Amino acid sequence: MKRKIIRRTLPVVAALLTGTAVFAQQDFKTAYFKIHVNKQGWVTSMKNITVQPHREFSPADKPSPLLSLYSSRTKKYYTPGQAKYNAKDRTMQLVYPNGSVARVSVVPHEKYLKLTLLSLSPKNGIDAVQWGAYHTSITNLLGEIIGVSRDTSEAVNYAIGMLALHDNTLGVTADTEADAAPFQYIIHTPDKKRYPLPANLHEGQVFTLGGNGISDVAFYAHKEPYYRIMYGNAATVDRQGRISIAYSSRDRSQKRQVYYSLIPNMPANTPNHIDVQPLPGVDYIGSSVALWGSPDSTALLDVVQHIVKAEGLPYPTINGKWVKDPAAYVPDALTAGGQYDSIVSYTARMGFKAISLYDQGFLRPDRGNGGYIDGKDFSRKPIRLAAGNLSHQSFADIAARSGLMIGRTTITNALAPGTKDASPVPGDSLCYQQKRLLAQSIGAADTIITVNDPTYLEEIGSWEGHATSLNMVKIGKELIHYLGVSKTAPYRLLNVKRGYWKTQAAGHAAGDTVYKLQVTINYGYDGLIPNMELQDEIARYYADVCHINGMGYYDLDGQEFLFNNGHGYYSAKRFFRLMFERAAKLGIPDIRFTGATLSEGSWHYQSIWNVGGGKNLYNPETREWGHETSQGKDLRDVTYANFYPVGMGGNFPIHAGSTVEEYEHIEAISVGLGTTYSLRLEQKSVESCPQKEAIFHVIKTWEAARAANAFPRWVKKALADPANTFRLEGIDADHWNLFTIGKDGSQKKLFARLERAKGY
Fold first, then answer.
1. Cβ contact 743:694 at 8 Å
2. 466 pLDDT above the threshold of 70
């Protein structure tokens, strides 16, 4: 009877007046955004309702499924064919051609629409769901990490995006292998008139990274503005350059195998077959996203920040402000040379907040020390000062008196040789690629090791670089190195080395389990990957290290190792949630961290992304992004499009020839575009600089004005242009004069009078 009551041409308003509770189509809107969902469950309209007439962003030829279903077994998507909306409980029923029926909650809020999957029955082989993809007509900037399409032009000034409201909802398409999108280039021009595509290229075309697949600097190989490096696929483009956005969620309780590489198009990083650890209770039911649209110029602080706070998403702060607020962007100090007498003084005098003890090398996670990296009595004193060396804890106390935090570079979750859980007694909570059985018993000295099944054992461990030195299996408490497996039965491991990594060679019985371990890479990053439960403990361990040693900063090198277990961005999100939850329980502030990568799994938690350094990022002499490679241009484009501070890496060392003018320009670019950087400070080099005090003053002046949010949007646009030269002079704590400087350095003209913004 319900079907007879609903008339397909009946307007929604008329239906409401008659008291009918179920509709075949429906409009949903916020203060800035309205969508229309038709009777098939497809979004056919997405409008900016802040302008008249309302501007349409849903392509007429490309409607968007509200929710898609996906089967990893058949590699097939299912889209809805029928929809019914119940206004009373604000739910939509979606019917699919495979027989599944989804019940979705659609709740309009002031600045976003909250979509939640309440149920799916029967599942009929569906192991993943996808919100969208939502197709837009926007062709300007794609935010592939957090899923946003942006038109930053003055004429349009609008953005449409999503945020996950559920840890198992990820900024990645449902068909992405291992839930971490390929690291690669695509062709996309942000402006067809300024940067027209050559005739031999088309929008969305995929290209591999540069180099040999091992040197991360060589990855960045295209300075052309239409080569867009991709750090995710929550936003993608079609052949017309139109941007689509999508989030997905997976049933992680099921056993599955992936064929995974983060960089699958390069011979040095060919995929591996990985048996992914099932995670009971981690399912797609409850998957939830915030879908929003708003003027682009105010989207970050008006809408995205609102969603984060309203939905209780991670909200780390610095100086009392959200780390995504451009007024909270602040550079850090990066130590070099191993001498620390003046580092705290230098850093404080520039208005920075953190010191990365980069010259201390890797801090390897080792649960064996209980978080006491200098010993339980703090007797180890690696921080060198003329007056006497200090432990991390003692140096952290000195830094804290000046309002500073200290931190170290780590190798994230890599279990290095000689640490607890790795060797000489490997733990039982290690991630493995394959599990086999020992076909015949062996003694402690035997090198003939036969297995019941050779499938995939010929693959060299990891997927990154495939370091032969890390190719190993674990039997009992012994690590065994090998290279290759025989092609005919009995299948035996080849080139065997027993008692690897100083583990104890021992006898093993037929039928014992043989684990082919998942590993990292070499070049000093050597390590084993933990399974999820052990990774959880390592996340908490990092918070303990901060608490015990007074630290508040990490440079998480090897951050991509969080993807190696096959759970992709979920693994990263879970790792950082547990680290931050443990830190909060211990009563320590939000941990500030950078790392080797940026993903939807770390976006909320990660403060900065100061990866790489030097002229690969920004060259103040030539005023060029990516002088020696395209790294600066590539990372700038990624971060800016994803509402994230652009990183200039470890850079701009103060030395004998450094000048005030150089740092005026660096700070102008930093404030204008919204960047951070890690300023390399070597005490001997800094002391050799005649202009060091003036440089400190210049940097602090700019940073004080930035923290005061004193730069309006039109001023930032001028500052971001490398062709311009500026000088900033403070009047008092709340006011500044900004001058332009002529090419010869003599023409000084007032450009703007600046003042502290309300609330800052």
1. no
2. yes
Question: Does residue 609 carry a pLDDT above 70?
Answer: yes
Closest CA to 643 of 326, 288, 235: 326
- Condensed to tens digits (0 to 9), the pLDDT of residues 63-93 reads 999 999 999 999 999 999 999 999 999 999 9
- The helix/strand/coil state of 529 is coil
- What's the Cα-to-Cα distance from 538 to each of 31, 413, 675, rounded to whole Å? 43, 7, 30
Structure tokens at 84: 């019914």
Span 540-555, average pLDDT = 98
User: 25: closest CA among 90, 105, 83?
Assistant: 83
> Measuring CA to CA, how many Å separate 179 from each of 80, 234, 719?
23, 11, 38
Q: Which of 488, 490, 508, 511 is nearest to 498 (CA)?
A: 508
Residue 35's H or E segment, with its range, is strand 33-37
**Residue 122, preceding peptide bond in cis (omega within 30° of 0):** yes
**Longest pairwise C-alpha distance within the chain:** 88
Specify whether the CB–CB gap between 297 and 616 falls below 8 A: no
Over residues 616-651, the pLDDT tens digits come to 999 999 999 998 899 999 999 999 999 999 999 999
Distance CA 148, CA 159 (A): 7
Amino acid at 379: S
Element (H, E) at 276: strand 272-276
Number of Cβ atoms within 10 Å of the Cβ of 589: 13
Distances (CA, A) of 207 to 234, 263, 630: 18, 11, 15
**Contact, 602 vs 316, CB < 8 A?**
no
The rounded percent of the chain whose pLDDT value lies above 70 is 97
- Joined together, the tokens standing for residue 746 give 């003599």
Residue 173 pLDDT more than 90? yes
Pairwise CA distance, residues 324 & 346, whole Å:
25
What number is the average pLDDT over the span 388-416? 98
Indicate if the pLDDT at residue 21 is higher than 80: no
As a three-state string, the secondary structure of 142-200 is: EECCCCEEEECCCCCCEEEEEEECCCCEECCCCCCHHHCCCCEEEECCCCCCCCCCCCC
**Per-residue pLDDT at 5:** 31
> What is the C-alpha separation between 367 and 36, in angstroms, rounded?
53
Q: What value does the mean pLDDT take over residues 565-583?
A: 98
The answer for residues whose C-beta is within 8 angstroms of residue 18's C-beta and 6 or more apart is none
109 touches 310 (CB < 8 A): yes
* Alpha helices in 331-409, H assignment, sequence order: 343-349, 392-401
Spell out the alpha helix ranges (H) of 227-272. none
Helix/strand/coil for 48: strand
As given in the structure block, the two tokens for residue 63 are: 């409607």
Find how far residue 153's CA is from the centre of its chain.
26
Claim: this prediction has a pTM higher than 0.85? yes
Q: What is the pLDDT of residues 701-734, one digit of tens each?
A: 999 999 999 999 999 999 999 999 999 999 999 9
Q: Which domains are delineated in the chain?
A: 22-179+243-313 (2.70.98), 331-413+529-719 (3.20.20.80), 432-517 (2.40.10)
Distances (CA, A) of 152 to 142, 366, 497: 11, 46, 59
Q: Could you give the CA distance from residue 672 to residue 478 in angstroms, rounded to a whole number?
A: 55
Answer yes or no: is pLDDT of 540 > 90.
Answer: yes
* 425 — pLDDT class (breaks 50, 70, 90): very high
Q: At what angle do helices 532-549 and 392-401 cross, to 10 degrees?
A: 60
- Residue in this structure with the two tokens 């590699």, named with its chain if needed: 75
DSSP bridge pairs for 432: 517
Q: Six-digit token pair at 252?
A: 């992680």
